[in-house]
Design goal:
alpha/beta; binds flavin-adenine dinucleotide; about 375 residues; five-stranded parallel beta sheet; 16 strands
Length: about 375
């Protein structure tokens, strides 16, 4: 078989690309080539084992699988079991720690009071009524109108400034419709029915998804370097950036990028939880990840632990795109790219980069499954 002579080529071996490849071979019974420009499969969900400690590290930030979609859970469960990890987020502010989202522990501890669950709603209402903001004009005013100034300034303001590198007064009010708070001590971050981490790690999950006699995988292969070698009639499933596909002809879509500083600490447990947020503006990073906590069932006797400090930064071409910024300008450009995409035959844009939107993993899988449903309908 000539190098790129396939009926189907999937560009990108992330969770979207792996899902599409698997569905195509199973439903169409035709050969698929998966290419990725990186040297590993799994896209941003990739994980690898730290050689010094044996701890599985998430290379692009902590990824916790959670979903309410039984279909997605059933699909992925064919390739992995999940452990029983339940995510909890703790925030440090001025040297003290609180649960996030704001719950009864956060409120009582922060204000030095002892409310009971049925008093929370009224208390928050009193806080937010102090400034009488009836028509919030920006994110700051909106947040204050929802939870009051004190909680906003402690838990939202600094984090937002670091995450988006701008004044919350310059961000539109519509970004937030609500700020969740809990009336009790419940501190699980996600409420989805299905949650956990792949038992043998993300790397093994993606290997299992692509393990099929009709799937070939080629890494360190950039689509744009080999595009001319792919036959015209080949169906392409492109999960790279949509603006790159069209050579940025309508301009760049904007992203936020991240930088992770990994460190091995000479203690068995550094912070007692997988993800610690840092709300103070003076602390330059937004979070510290400590990966051992994601796998409570695994034994680790190195006496050491791996952490990663997460820094948010502006994106420029060549950096890894993480979060779509989604300005008005971006939305206009995206519309133009979508119009271009609709005119093309044999190419499907998918995934977080191909559709320029933030997808949790389960939503990325669901969108990929639905794309394949459509293709299958068309085929029959
Ligand atoms: P990607 O994973 O980005 O895969 C796209 C692949 O395409 C990449 O491997 C890339 O190398 C390849 N590619 C791009 N261009 C080319 C090209 N020209 N040629 C060849 N290959 C190319 N979701 C959750 O559900 N839970 C979480 O806890 C969670 N945490 C997250 C934390 C962070 C910091 C971020 C940013 C996201 C998080 N997500 C989480 C979302 C999750 O990362 C996405 O749902 C997932 O990565 C989407 O997969 P994808 O396949 O669409 O894209």
């Amino acid at each position: 078989m000539a190098q790129f002579d396939y009926r189907h080529v999937v560009v990108g071996a992330g969770i979207t690309g792996c899902t599409i490849a698997r569905r195509i071979v199973e439903d169409f019974g035709e050969r698929v080539l998966v290419i990725d420009r990186r040297d590993h499969i799994g896209g941003n969900c990739h994980s690898s084992v730290d050689p010094q400690t044996g701890i599985e590290v998430h290379n692009y930030g902590t990824h916790i699988f959670h979903t309410a979609e039984k279909r997605v859970w059933n699909f992925l469960s064919r390739f992995t079991e999940f452990n029983s990890y339940r995510h909890k987020v703790v925030t440090t502010y001025q040297g003290r720690t609180y649960h996030m989202p704001v719950n009864l522990q956060t409120i009582n501890s922060f204000f030095g009071i002892n409310l009971r669950p049925h008093e929370v709603e009224g208390f928050i209402r009193e806080q937010s009524a102090k400034e009488r903001i009836s028509d919030p004009r920006n994110l700051e005013e909106k947040a204050i109108s929802l939870i009051g100034r004190e909680l906003y300034e402690s838990f939202v303001k600094g984090y937002t400034v670091k995450q988006w590198e701008c004044d919350p007064r310059d961000l539109p009010a519509e970004i937030i419709t609500r700020l969740p708070f809990r009336h009790g001590y419940e501190c699980d971050y996600f409420t989805d029915r299905y949650q956990g981490l792949p038992w043998d790690g993300y790397a093994r999950l993606f290997e299992n998804m692509l393990e099929h006699e009709l799937i070939d995988v080629r890494l360190e292969t950039d689509f744009f370097a080999v595009r001319a070698d792919i036959p015209q009639q080949t169906a392409i499933y492109y999960t790279g950036p949509v603006d790159r596909y069209f050579d940025y002809s309508y301009g760049e879509l904007s992203w936020r990028s991240l930088r992770f500083e990994y460190e091995v600490e000479a203690v068995a447990d550094y912070q007692g939880t997988a993800v610690m947020n840092f709300a103070d503006i003076e602390v330059p990073y937004t979070r510290i990840h400590e990966f051992r906590h994601l796998y409570p069932e695994r034994e680790s006797d190195s006496g050491k632990t791996v952490i990663a400090r997460e820094f948010s930064m502006k994106w420029k071409q060549g950096d890894e795109p993480y979060y779509p910024v989604n300005t008005d300008e971006d939305r206009k450009r995206l519309k133009l790219y979508r119009q271009e995409a609709e005119r093309l035959e044999n190419i499907h844009f998918a995934g977080r980069l191909g559709r320029y939107r933030y997808y949790d993993m389960d939503k990325a899988v669901l969108a990929a499954l639905e794309l394949c449903d459509e293709l299958l309908q068309f085929k029959q």
